[in-house]
Amino acid sequence: MIDLHTHTTASDGGLSPSDLVSRASAAGLTVLSVTDHDTLAACGPAAAACAAAGIEFVPGIEITAVRDERDVHTLGYFVDAASPGLARFLAHQRQTRIDRLREMIVRLARFGIELDADRILQPARDDDTKSAGRPWIARALVAGGHVKTWNEAFERWLGRGAAAFVPRSGASPDDVIARIHATGGLASVAHPGPLGRDEWLPGLVDAGLDAVEAYHTDHDPAATARYLALADRLGIAVTGGSDYHADPSHGAALGGVTLPRDAYEKLKSRVRSA
Ligand SMILES: [Zn+2]
Ligand SMILES: [Zn+2]
Fold first, then answer.
1. Tens of pLDDT along 188-242?
2. pTM recorded for the entire structure
3. Are residues 269 and 204 in the same domain?
4. 246 alpha carbon to ligand 2 midpoint, in Å?
5. What is the distance in A from the centroid of ligand 1 to the CA of 75?
């Protein structure tokens, strides 16, 4: 069984890399990729644990690209987890995220809501595996008594179109694909079903996209069939996995969605020999 989409505590997953690998081993996985959001921090420990458990490990990442204010989750596989260029790019992505939140805090101040930006954003500086996000500001708004609930924080202040909302900016999918290629990796668009922008895929293939995630927890059999056919037509490979987070509200069970062996071999055959 092959699962190429999982998360650990290095991003928003619930298990450490070694606990994830123990779980993978118990579930009978033979190939595993860890694809944390915008960080490669789990790849080293997960690779070591996989080697000990006899599981083939694929170094991976899920990078958030942005196009037309939509997040385009882009998976990178067989990336060089030690690449300084990629590390610099990811650090820049983190900074962009922090700058955006700081700008929202400035806007809140214009409405008389004074929050301590340094304190709210400090965890992202202390620990570079932590990705700052709007929930951090929402928490501070609730704690400061400015709103009663998390939902109210988003509705009045932080949600799209709300008073302090700042649109996300970030690297384009084309740029992210190029960064992944620069480390010898392969790029795949994650969960294209929920993304709902199939019309973007041919252009991304022109930009070098290697694959599309046909098998995913949020795809029903019809969606999977659609992406298998689309990948075939576009001449690209397919990827797949559970998007396991060790969180019942998010993603399937580990190995709950898998990539067939022949599809995996086809993907692997695209890795350029450096
Ligand atoms: Zn995703
Ligand atoms: Zn994911």
1. 999 999 999 999 999 999 999 999 999 999 999 999 999 999 999 999 999 999 9
2. 0.88
3. yes
4. 12
5. 8
Domain termination residue (choose one: 134, 158, 182): 158
Ligand number, closest to the Cα atom of 189: 1
CB atoms within 10 A of CB 35: 31
From the CA of 13, how far away is ligand 2's center (Å)? 9
Say which CATH number the domain at 137 has.
1.10.150
CA distances from 135 to 12, 140, 247 (A): 13, 9, 17
Q: Is residue 137 domain-shared with residue 190, that is, in the same domain?
A: no
Q: Are 6 and 36 in contact (CB under 8 A)?
A: no
In terms of Cα–Cα distance, which of 60, 51, 62 is closest to 271? 60
Tell me how far the alpha carbon of residue 263 lies from the centroid of ligand 2, in angstroms.
Answer: 19
Domain assignment present for 23: yes
User: Is position 166 within any domain?
Assistant: no
What is the distance in A from the centroid of ligand 2 to the CA of 116? 31
Write out the residues surrounding ion ligand 1, Cβ under 5 A. 73, 190
